[in-house]
Design a protein that fits this description.
Mean pLDDT: 82
Helix content: under 10%
Strand content: 35-45%
Number of helices: 8
Largest sheet: 12 strands, antiparallel
Low-confidence stretches: 1-21, 290-303, 482-487, 885-889, 947-952
Distance between the termini: 93 Å
């Protein structure tokens, strides 16, 4: 037999119409011992598979049968105990079946130990090298049930110490648990485990001769210093103290991997004594009737199969034809053993038949039936294909046949991996020479798989298909479901992939070509497919070999006619798949474009909604576009658009549907972000409001680039969607799904950043009076006009350079420099505008209103560094001279500024990490409130040209590279200072051509008897 298919068959018997609470292979009685173990009449046969009924080991007693179950592949830490009702698939059943093998001492022949081999994995129950267990002392006593016995082991232990293993329920910490009391405190088991991730399983636990867990934590411990532990903790139950005292302020850590063994199990509070097991005989015969077989081969699926595996020399109609297992409603007939099959006019009944895909010459359907003819050499009836006919509207047997001869059943022998096909009735003539066609003389006997079956019988000259007694046929001589034809194969899918499911029935249907989908509420519907609609996509996941769940990507609902726990699906003609509900469909893989966790909903990146504004419009079939606009704060339809801002609702819904999709809801506000769209008081329309609760909108795709705007309330039944009423001009809410038009909106985008994204360049920074920002004689920022204060302020004083300080797609920040000099790459030097918060306590560094002042200070940024060096004219530098170095306290943000848009075109606010630029009596200072900020203009200007020669009467000052030359001033005192007023040179000139070192940037040169002037040093 095809092993893979037989496994699928076993799973399908459950995945069809069988109750999910019914196990695949039922629990029988306890295995009975037999002194001649291995004899045919022995109930308990070592080497055969058994369920192991479990008690103790933390198992709660009750009506259910609890069985030892292997969760993983080999190790005992994956051993568990499960309710037999959960064994509804072949894999689950096999994981609970164990081959019990007795191992004898080769020297004495006496029983040494037992091993247990799992049917699913084929591996021994083991932990490390331990795989031999004491279970029963010898071969079970003749005729008595095998008793439930502790499963223990002495393998690999120091017997002199009295050590032994027992299976117990073990609770394992999967994350560390810390305890640090403020006062001396007792620590209980439940305090360690409460709220922590743990696993529970049956594991081998080592005990000593005093029945104590070997190496367990000492529960009498007093913790006087911080301590960590990994190992075993043993206690009566979780309410017992496991630490006598933990001293105040001391931390006790139980690491991940710590194992807890309680006498009363943590999970059930049942006795956690050594696990006891008792072998239970499985009932391997699974009867396949029309109900549970429908999940495997359903006539509405147009699937078919052949029975193969047995050779015959004669005609074998089973092997040469493809069949469907079909229920037919036929004219009622007698079913009581011993009665005749006389026709009756009573209501119709249903029977199970095997219908061949082949038809006769007239195109009529053919069915397997027991013939009236027999083979020579015994009471062996022949089988044939025959038609059925009609009696009015009733289906009746063909002439000279009786309806009972068409009825067949199927049984699956799980242990032998084989199929029995059996007639539901056997027939005999009541009297001779009565005719077979005279149903009044044909006597029936009901039959089961234990009685007569279809098989190959060896006659004297040939092997023929016939009806024989079941006891004449070995398990291996029964039939198998053989090669599945292309019209009836087992469907396979990519695990975790998404598909469109398109109707492809042969019969004409208006829904053919449409796709299975779910509505927003999860209702089943048919619709056209599109990559952007997750409601038309279905995620297929393999939950067991060949068994799949099929769930809608958006709603998570299971596909109609597919069991929620999973099902096996079968192919029909032309690559289609047959569903149990009757539809034939095509599974079309969703394109890579649809492999997107945000599919189906608008999900904006932060830089999108922060840097853009959005209009909402609807275009009808006449290509007329109508916009959502406002009038007196009420939303109205308009032929003119208005742009709104979107801002995300903080809570993002993740992991909905079958494919962990993500959808975000958004608030919609005016462009200023002050008023938000809310419902009106009657909830019949929308308005803009600063105080009412804003609507949380989902933008759900209804087209590739169109959206419906849905209120994302928790209860979908209460949810509304926004529509435009073209006739009334109203923008109003309606129940989701009730709108048939005017609800598919285009979302148009216009750049609307909150901050200037590219401000690099030369500017005059002006206040609203037209005064420009510059440095005064001490370097402090002031707003002044050109020519003010005896011509000290010249055009070069106001030409400021703005350069990027921090690249950011939403809120970039900038340096503002006076006397800037750019070098290679990003090297930059000059006088950087700085918030003087570090000097706030120094007199003169606050404005008259108490706000911190800003000043232009000399600094330098190297091309390879993100830090600034201040006082860079020094010959040596230290980290104290810099800001922005890693590991140093914050400081560089004092030099960084953002330019924020306002509602007035061309006006900006300059924002710093600690506030906004403001002015008080034209003194530049920092306000903490946006309302106090100084609105500014940024007016582009030319880069200033460095002053190389400044004449003061007959005195001439020439700016050089790193120096200043003063001519015609011999004998006069000269003071050179930077713009902060810091003196860098103070001397009496001894020459009319004196060269004095000076820092790069703007310096003030004061010659005795002359007016002070500024010079820019390169």
């Amino acid at each position: 037999m095809n092993k893979r298919f037989s496994t699928l068959l076993a799973a399908a018997l459950v995945a069809g119409s069988m109750s999910v609470s019914a196990e695949l292979v039922e629990i029988g009685s306890a295995a009975g011992g037999n002194s001649s173990a291995g004899a045919d009449d022995a109930t308990f046969v070592p080497g055969k598979y058994y369920y192991l009924q479990a008690t103790e080991g933390g198992v709660t007693a009750g009506a259910a049968e609890y069985l030892a179950y292997l969760k993983g592949q080999v190790t005992t830490d994956s051993l568990a105990v499960v309710d037999d009702a959960t064994l509804t698939t072949a894999e689950a059943t096999d994981r609970a079946l164990w081959k019990v093998v007795e191992v004898k001492n080769p020297a004495t022949g006496a029983l040494s130990h037992w091993t247990f081999e799992n049917k699913y994995t084929g591996t021994l129950l083991a932990e490390g090298s331990v795989n031999a267990f004491k279970w029963i002392d010898g071969v079970p006593a003749d005729g008595s049930d095998v008793a439930a016995t502790e499963l223990t082991s002495l393998q690999g232990l120091d017997l002199a110490k009295g050590e032994y293993y027992e299976f117990r329920e073990v609770v394992t910490l999967l994350e560390k648990s810390e305890y640090k009391p403020t006062n001396n405190a007792i620590l209980y088991g439940y305090e360690i485990l409460s709220g922590k991730k743990v696993s529970r399983s049956l594991q081998l636990v080592k005990f000593d001769k005093n029945d104590e867990v070997v190496g367990a934590w000492d529960n009498a411990t007093t913790v006087a210093a911080d301590k960590a532990f990994t190992g075993y903790v043993a206690a009566t139950d979780a309410n017992q103290a496991v630490v006598t005292i933990v001293n105040a302020g001391k931390k006790l850590t139980f690491n991940a991997g710590t194992k807890f063994v309680f006498d009363d199990a943590y999970s059930t509070m049942a006795s956690n004594d050594a696990l006891k097991i008792q072998p239970i005989v499985p009932d391997f015969e699974v009867t396949v009737d029309e109900d549970n077989f429908a999940g495997l081969i359903n006539p509405k699926k147009f699937t078919s199969f052949k029975f193969t595996g047995l050779e015959s020399t004669g005609t074998n109609v089973l092997a040469t034809n493809e069949f469907e297992y079909v229920q037919l409603t036929v004219k009622a007939y007698e079913t009581k053993t011993g009665n005749t099959v006389a026709g009756t006019g009573t209501p119709s009944t249903t029977i199970d038949v095997l219908r061949a895909k082949a038809k006769d010459a007239q195109g009529r359907a053919l069915y397997l039936r027991v013939d009236t003819a027999k083979f020579e050499g015994g009471d062996y009836f022949k089988l044939k294909l025959d038609t059925l006919t009609k009696d009015g509207n009733d289906i009746v047997a063909a002439p000279k046949a009786v309806m009972q001869s068409y009825a067949f059943g199927i049984a699956y022998d799980y242990a032998a991996d084989s199929v029995s096909i059996y007639p539901k009735f056997t027939l005999a003539k009541a009297a001779d020479p009565a005719s077979w066609s005279d149903s009044a003389t044909v006597v029936i006997t009901t039959n089961t798989a234990a009685g007569k079956v279809v098989a190959i019988h060896q006659f004297s000259t040939a092997k023929e298909l016939t009806i024989v007694d079941n006891n004449e046929v070995s398990a291996k001589a029964k039939y198998t479901f053989g090669d599945i034809t292309p019209g009836g194969g087992v469907a396979s899918f990519e695990d975790g992939a998404s598909y469109y499911i398109q109707r492809a029935n042969k019969a004409a249907n208006v829904a053919n070509g449409k796709f299975y989908a779910n509505s927003f509420y999860g209702d089943a519907q048919y619709m056209d497919s599109a990559y952007y609609l997750p409601a038309t996509q279905w995620t297929v996941k393999e939950v067991a070999t060949g068994t799949y769940t099929i769930k809608n990507r958006e709603t998570g609902n299971t596909l109609t006619s597919v069991a929620a726990a999973g099902a096996i699906l079968y192919t029909a003609e032309e690559g289609t798949v047959a569903l149990a509900g009757g539809d034939t469909v095509k599974f079309i893989a969703a394109p890579a474009l649809a492999d997107n966790k945000y599919l189906g909903y608008l999900n904006l990146k932060e830089e999108d909604y922060r840097n853009n504004a959005y209009s909402i419009s609807f275009t009808d079939y006449n290509d007329i576009t109508t916009y959502v606009n406002t009038e007196d704060s009420v939303l109205k339809a308009s032929n003119e658009g208005v742009y709104f801002k979107l801002s995300p609702v903080p809570a993002i819904e993740k992991g909905f549907g079958a494919d962990t999709l993500v959808r975000s809801a958004y608030y919609i506000s005016d462009r200023e972000g002050k008023k938000f769209i809310t419902y009106n008081d009657a909830k019949t329309g929308y308005k803009l409001s600063e105080t009412a609760e804003p609507v949380k909108f989902l933008f759900r795709n209804v087209g590739a680039e169109t959206y419906s705007l849905i209120d994302s309330v928790v209860t979908l039944a209460d949810s509304k969607e926004l529509i435009i009423d073209i006739k009334s001009g109203a923008v109003r809410p309606v129940k989701v799904g009730s709108a048939v038009a005017n609800n598919a909106f285009d979302i148009l985008v216009e750049p609307a950043p909150e901050y200037v994204l590219d401000a690099k360049g030369h500017y005059n920074i002006e206040n609203l009076r037209g005064d420009m920002l510059a440095a005064d004689a001490n370097g402090f920022g002031m707003f002044r006009k050109e020519g003010e204060l005896k011509s000290v302020y010249e055009p070069t004083d106001f030409a400021l350079y703005i350069d990027t300080a921090k690249i950011d797609p939403i809120e970039p920040s900038y340096f503002i420099l006076s006397g800037a000099k750019a070098g290679e790459g990003s090297e930059l030097e000059g006088n950087f505008l700085r918030v003087m918060s570090d000097s706030a306590k120094v007199e003169g560094y606050k404005a008259a209103n108490g706000m911190i002042r800003l000043a232009f200070v000399p600094a330098k940024r190297f091309a390879t560094s993100d830090s600034l060096l201040v006082n860079y004219q020094k010959e040596t530098f230290t980290k104290e001279d810099s800001v922005g170095y890693k590991g140093k306290q914050a400081g560089i943000e004092q030099f960084q500024f953002k330019f924020q848009y306002t509602n007035v075109e061309g006006e900006y606010l300059a924002e710093n990490a600690n506030g906004y630029l403001a002015s008080y009596n034209d003194v530049l200072c920092l306000a903490t409130s946006k309302d106090q900020a100084q609105a500014i203009h940024l007016t582009a200007t030319e880069a200033p040209t460095a002053s190389e020669s400044v004449e003061v009467s007959e005195v001439t000052i020439i700016a050089g590279e790193g120096n200043v030359t003063i001519a015609n001033a011999a004998g006069k005192k000269v003071v050179i200072s930077n713009i902060l007023g810091q003196v860098v040179a103070n001397t009496i000139l001894t020459s009319d051509n004196a060269v004095i070192a000076a820092p790069q940037g703007v310096v003030v040169v004061a010659v005795e008897g002359e007016e002070a002037v500024k010079a820019i040093i390169k």
